[in-house]
Amino acid sequence: MLVRTTHLTEPLTITAAPLTRDAFAPFGDVIANPRPESRPSNTAPDAIARGELPCGAVSANQGTAIQYRAIASMGNLYDSAPSGKTGSPRMTMFVCGARALVSRDGGGGGGGGEEEVADGVQIKVLERHPFTSQTFIPLTADGTKRYLVVVAPTTPVPTGEEEENLPAPRDDAGLPGRGLPDVSRLVAFVATGEQAVTYAAGTWHAPMIALGPPDSTVDFVVVQFANDVPVEDCQEVALEDGGKGDGPASRIWVRVLEGDWRALAKL
User: Fold this and answer.
1) Is 145 found in the same domain as 182?
2) What string of pLDDT tens digits covers the 267 residues of the chain?
3) Do residues 99 and 121 make contact, with C-beta atoms less than 8 angstroms apart?
4) Measuring CA to CA, which residue among 50, 56, 59 is closest to residue 70?
5) Structure pTM?
6) CA–CA separation, 252 vs 89, rounded Å?
7) What are the boundaries of the region Disordered (predicted)?
8) What's the structural domain count of the chain?
9) Which of 72, 83, 236, 260 is most exposed by smallest CB count within 10 Å?
10) How crowded is residue 79: how many other Cβ atoms within 10 Å of its Cβ?
11) 16 near 264, Cβ under 8 Å?
12) Listing from the earlier edge strand, what are the strands of the sheet with 88-97?
């Protein structure tokens, strides 16, 4: 549900970094095999019991599996929603078509005879789910598949009555709070198909952006809670150019550089 249109006054360009567990920690969890080299065949159950593996690992399935019990968390805060309507667990699928990278000016060439490079995407919307976490799980273990994760902190103090009236848990429990996204501190990450991502409750993020060749997709199973009250399930902020037209367009631009993302995107 659209709750605000924000008119940007300055252009912002950021470069996406590889998605890692530590870098993303302020916004949620990165879910990936924390020790891909450790397998049931080469890791004895007693070694697992001694705590030699991370994330609460235990030996499972009669020693034929390793279970990481503390890989991520889920949040259901609908008991504090103003409507009083309980949230229920939902599992859906998003088939995300790859977004074509374009140049910042939206065309094929820049001024002064310099050619603009098609290396990014514009961020036009940020959204949050104030009472639930949301986990995107790619249906592939292909490290060459990529998608863009864009998040922003919440402004610490609401700037108007409209924000005060937005349904959201109070921030006295370490939650982001009721404020709008702080677009000046927006960050972006490139994830691979070997990684899933959980947005913590209340985290401002862009809708999922799949990367890849034209007509390709990244298919996700999405796990969250919902109560079907639109303003409690999802709040959106549209980001529009508020410039005066005498300079660069005031837009948020995320550059996606080429690189070995499979090697760089590690826990």
Assistant:
1) yes
2) 999 898 898 899 999 999 999 999 999 999 999 999 999 999 999 999 999 999 999 999 999 999 999 899 899 999 999 999 999 999 999 999 999 898 887 654 444 445 678 899 999 999 999 999 999 999 987 878 999 999 999 987 666 666 667 888 766 567 787 889 999 999 999 999 999 999 999 999 999 999 999 899 999 999 999 999 999 999 999 999 876 666 677 889 999 987 655 555 554
3) yes
4) 56
5) 0.88
6) 33
7) 156-176
8) 2
9) 260
10) 10
11) no
12) 28-31, 196-199, 134-138, 217-226, 88-97
Q: Which domain holds residue 40?
A: 35-70
49 and 86 share one domain: no
120, 202: one domain: yes
127 vs 235: CA distance, rounded Å: 5
- Taking only Cα atoms into account, the Rg of the chain, rounded to an integer number of angstroms, comes to 20
In a shared domain, residues 82 and 119 = yes
Give the whole-angstrom CA distance, residue 43 versus residue 34: 14
User: In the listed set 70, 89, 123, which residue is the last one of a domain according to the structure?
Assistant: 70
Q: Quick check: helix, strand or coil at residue 24?
A: helix
